[in-house]
Amino acid sequence: MMAPRKWRYPTGAMAAIAALFFSPDGWTASQAGLLIDARPAPFHSQHLRVQAQDHDLTGVWISEKGERFEVKQNGNSVRAEFRGTAANPGLKGVIAGQFDGKVSLGGAYEVSEGTKEERGVVRFVLTPDGKLDGTRQSLTSGGKPERWVLTRESR
Questions:
Q1: pLDDT digits over 85-117, tens only?
Q2: What is the pTM of this model?
């Protein structure tokens, strides 16, 4: 049979909970009292905060419909010029917005095809697999937001 462990009880509530959780003998009255009487103590974590890396969106991106976006980034400012596919070669447009350098890009867009023009807003998120997944919503014609997914062209 194992000898009972002797614990040095910390004063912080979180540390007391951890001591209780890992105690092989279960809860004791003194441990339960620690939880009741514990006062918050400064928390000094040994864990490092994980942050997304800064990303540069400069390059060529392709939509699911085949639209080609030439993206230029200067600091947090992003400008993307795009044109349509073979099915609608007259389509052209511009997206101008701000990128947080991590995952979020928001801004405005203008599209023209012949005499037809549209303006609206865009919001993209840079996904873990490297796609820009977002929506565009026309302010000219209204309606529901449309999904727009862009994939970086292979270099």
A1: 888 889 999 999 999 988 899 999 999 998 999
A2: 0.63
Mean of all residue pLDDT scores within the chain: 77
Calculate the CA 59 to chain-centre distance: 20
Whether 35 and 13 have beta carbons less than 8 Å apart is answered as yes
| Same domain as 33, residue 63 | no
Phi, psi of 86 (to 5 degrees): -60, -30
In a domain, 54, yes or no: no
- Return the SS3 of 21: helix
pLDDT confidence of residue 38: 45
Residue 48 pLDDT exceeds 80: no
Q: How far is CA 85 from CA 59, 90, 91, 107, 115, in A?
A: 18, 9, 8, 23, 18
> Which residues, at least 6 apart from 105, have a Cβ–Cβ distance to it below 8 Å?
57, 78, 97, 98, 99, 122, 123, 124, 125, 126, 132, 134
Query: Is 67 found in the same domain as 20?
Result: no
